[in-house]
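This protein record is not my work; I was only asked to verify it. Would you go through it and say whether the fold makes sense for this chain? Here is the record exactly as it was handed to me.
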Amino acid sequence: MHSNEVQFRIKKLKRKVISIVEQKSMTSIMNNTKWFELQSSVMKLPFLPPYEIKYVTDIYEPEQFDKDVCYTGNWDDELLLPFFNIEWVKVRPRYIKNRGLLVDGEIVDETERFIDILEKYCIPYEEENGAVIIYGYRKL
């Protein structure tokens, strides 16, 4: 894809996001700087926390994310960018590490370090059922 076409698609998406945000009377909570700080700090954790993401342009709500999982997250740019389209990210800063078929998995928990990152960069969050929710936008 040519650079001009990519820029055109991003501008078109941004207009759509702005329209939806205005329709739903939402306000922006995060900015690119905070998203980048979060992303780069999370990459330094012992594992990449699993998450569910809701984009402003999504039609459907993601499934419940209220149980520990046995996978880690992908915090690369291609999944998170563009940040302006993120309505919220629900992060579980813990996962179940498989130890074999006959042994229960070990829970690896980085919740405290994850919360430290959020507080260091003044990123507002809520905790719910073991998950940490970071809002890109909230209803007024």
About this structure: The chain has one domain: 3-139. The radius of gyration is 17 Å. The mean pLDDT is 93. The first strand starts at residue 26 and ends at 28.
